[in-house]
Design brief:
The protein has four domains: about 200 residues, Growth Hormone, Chain: A (Up-down Bundle); about 150 residues, no CATH class; about 80 residues; about 220 residues, 3-Layer(aba) Sandwich (Rossmann fold). About 55% of the residues lie in helices and about 10% in strands. It has an eight-stranded mixed β-sheet with strand order 7-6-5-8-9-11-10-12, with helices on both faces. Strand 1 and strand 2 form a beta hairpin. The chain starts with 12 loop residues before the first helix and ends in a 22-residue tail after the last strand.
Amino acid sequence: MNHPLEVKTDRSLSLIVLFAGTLFISASLMFVLQPLFGKILLPLLGGSPAVWNTCMVFYQSILFLGYLYAHTISTRFSQHHQIQIHAIIILISFLALPVALPENSIPPTDSNPTAWLLWTLFLAIGLPYFVVSTTAPLIQKWFANAGHHTSHDPYYLYAASNTGSLIALLSYPFLLEPAIGLANQKAYWSVGYLILSLFIAGCALVLWKTRGNTISAQDSDLKENISPKRKLQWLALAFVPSSLLLGLTNFISTDIASVPLLWIIPLTLYLLSFIIVFSKWNDKIHPLMVKLQPIVLLPFIAYAFINPADLPYWAYLVLHLLAFFFAIMVCHGELAKDRPHTHYLTTFYLIMSFAGMLGGMFNTFVAPFIFNGIYEYPIMIVAALLLRPGTIASLNKGLLLQIIAPALLIITGFILYANIDNLLEYFDACVISLIILTFLTFLLRSRPVAYALLTGAIIFLSLGLHGLSSHTLYQERTFFGVLAVRESVLTNEHNQPEKYHELFHGTTKHGAQRLAANLAKTPLTYYSRPGPMGQLFKEFDNTNQNWTIGVVGLGAGALACYAKDQQNWTLYEIDPLVIDIASNANYFNYLKLCSYNTTMRVGDARLSLEKEPDQKFDLLVMDAFSSDSVPTHLLTREALQLYFKKLKPNGILAFHITNRHLLLKKVLSIHAEHLHFAALIQEFKPQQDIPLVVATDWVVMANNTQTLTPLSLSRLGNWQKMPLYFDMKPWTDDFTNIVSIWK
């Protein structure tokens, strides 16, 4: 890299502290504002992924516009004019402080709220978010002209920006959210924004004073070749890790484990990679990462894709995270190694931001429509391998020969899948063959094209093999995740094998049904007749003939088999595909056999319930909390007050709180104590081995104790008073804290 000639340089540490501190504060504010404002919007728009997707598109678009602005003013205006323009933009942005929803913000109920949401985001946080988005490239560009002895290579300051992002990412769920309500978060963020403005003013003052202290780069420097080919390479090196990040995050929650906040780990590694590659250590670390990546990929492909059943989920997770980290370290390392002269700094960052936006849009809007699983993740693994150093040279060394072996492998696999009906009988032989091929790929590591394509062929053949072994009858993907219907076999009461169907959302089971005609109406899993729901309906059997019942969360539709002719049921489900699957008798026929006077409502449950008449329901069942993405807005004090507003005076509110990772009874117990509701809990464990009757936890609540007395006195189950907790504030629309209820 060519360096500018310097007439006078500043070697003071304070200059680095000022500019790095500005980048740190800016990135921290950006990563805090995103979840903060998402929580503000949640009660208004509900938990639809369309809301989050729209927010992410807004954030990514504003980030790109911020980088475009920084590129434009730094290349077309003098330093004085840059400072003046930016000062005006910052002063105008103060009009949006403190960050909050505009007054009388009510989303439309009769049309798509996307346009309303984008306009609301723009009015509420558009200008402040735009300012923090401009900071990374603009402040580094200013530092390049500030006359410091390191100004010739200001890219190391990018580490300060990513460190701020990383600390904010980890601080929000573990420190800020548990300790500070939304109202105070908004106020503190506004104070932080004012502090950032002062830091930017300090950087501007330094630039203003040092104007003329340095001579511009020589003509030879400015004529550094930034060819379209090189720009496309930057685009690819930034696009693939961005897509890989989102793909792995989805894959973890869908195929590995539904653990809350697990998404933080990939994002942490992603930010950490930027910190490392733009540091002074990258020259030594990058070659090591390139050498080690093929070694890490051997156990990753062999166990994480070809034969994952032999590993516990945490080891499975570690393999994926390690492979991901090495892939993005190689890509980002190549990106950092090829960073241009500071004259092209904003161009470099503009392309990076554009690539990040494209990666987000591809995974959010394109992949769910063209794939029925998280297939963009393995595709991007292959793409990352194609970006290893030496690809261009590899292309020139017999491209056809490098393609032949992977192509033959894929063709052989398709022939086997199509022509051998009992291929699963040879499952072990197929697995061993693929593992041997995996070790052979290691020999091709110096030829990225052959290495990447053969690795991709092995991964996709492995996915196909496991698709056959899982007996998946149907699989489809929406914005809400991947839904799958699988056929499994149990040993029935007569010690005979019997087929049944299961519904999965990612790794979380949402229902099951036995296929025999005499058993098809029997509710199973969490809703079994021996379990809490069966006990509740049986205990109130004489009084519930004319009940009006609402159920939030459809699943396979098993609860509908408690319905009676005279009852009216309303089923609320946020994902239309769940309704399609539950209504398809080829998969589940609970609804066909059992639903009588039943109405379906599609959309977020809280928003849907607000439209219902007051005192409509005798029983309201909340069943939306078994996965990792718990809709916290359905568990706040305001939500419970809404539910009881829709219940009759003697109505019952039932919560299904079975969750592998979260102690949801803690939230409900504190609500019951503060709102003076009667509450009982049953942590049900089957007393005998009954097929597909599982352990499950339920809480029932009512306005008065007498309503629940029949249950507490019954001998049908072990209903108990809720335990008391005093170590957490009640959840409200202003305050929720997932970390405090981890098991």
